[in-house]
From TrEMBL:
Transmembrane segments: none
Top-level EC class: ligase
Gene name for this UniProt entry: fbiB
Gene3D superfamilies recorded: NADH Oxidase
Alphabetized UniProt keyword annotations: Ligase
Keyword Ligase included in the entry's annotation: yes
Name this protein carries in UniProt: Bifunctional F420 biosynthesis protein FbiB
Phosphoprotein as UniProt keyword: no
Organism for this UniProt entry: Sporomusa acidovorans (strain ATCC 49682 / DSM 3132 / Mol)
Domain (Nitroreductase): residue spans on this chain: 6-188
Gene Ontology molecular function: coenzyme F420-1:gamma-L-glutamate ligase activity
Length: 211
């Protein structure tokens, strides 16, 4: 059984300046949108930024939002910890391409239960846990990253910077009713071919087979 394409994907945070051809980007997005989608709603939208100055400005927006949000914290350890994440949340600034993935509306039984208000809210809210609308986005981004790695490109799954989602969306001028920025990934040629991933938990710790 050859599953090598799975293990080619790593979180890449440093890139060369080599550009990614537009046709390649389109093929990667095409791979993304062939991910499974609950009720086939395909509640995703991809915004791809290839302008180096704009990518740098998006990183600056994240830095500014990080600084702003830190002023709402009181515990010094939390402030230091949160400010310390900004470097990780802006690693995309060195990439030639930035992929922003937006999630759109997805109606579930939880939405109906909460809207009708018959079931107590604290009970109805538990049905939101599967969050299939976000699962669709996750599946699509995973497809994109596996396809990119198979073609020799690097990516990095990022959700941290989404605390600046509104500011980023305003800057790039993207607005689509009901959609919000859910995740992003840099895309480019890795700066090194010596790539690795953190160890995974043993299979027996995360697998239960019921026969």
């Amino acid at each position: 059984m050859n599953l090598d394409f799975i293990y080619k994907r790593h979180s890449v945070r440093k890139f060369t300046e080599e550009q990614v051809p537009e046709q390649t980007i389109k093929e990667l997005i095409k791979a993304a949108i062939h991910a499974p989608s609950g009720k086939n709603q395909q509640n995703w939208h991809f915004v791809v930024v290839t302008n180096k100055e704009k990518i740098a400005e998006i990183a600056r927006i994240v830095e500014m939002k990080n600084a702003e949000l830190s002023t709402y914290l009181r515990d010094e350890a939390k402030i230091k910890g949160f400010k310390g994440t900004v470097g990780y949340h802006t690693v995309f600034k060195g990439a030639p391409v930035l992929v922003l993935v937006y999630a759109g509306p997805y109606d579930t039984i939880a939405d109906m239960l909460l809207a009708d208000g018959v079931m107590p809210r604290e009970e109805a809210i538990k049905y939101t846990k599967p969050n299939p609308g976000i699962q669709n986005i996750a599946a699509a981004l995973e497809n994109l990253q596996l396809a990119a790695a198979n073609l020799g490109y690097g990516t990095c799954w990022m959700t941290g910077p989404t605390y600046a989602a509104e500011e980023i969306s305003a800057y790039i001028g993207f607005k689509k009713d009901g959609y919000h920025l859910a995740a992003m990934s840099p895309l480019g040629v890795p700066a090194t071919d010596k790539l690795s991933s953190p160890p995974r938990k043993p299979l027996e710790d995360v697998l239960t087979i019921i026969s």
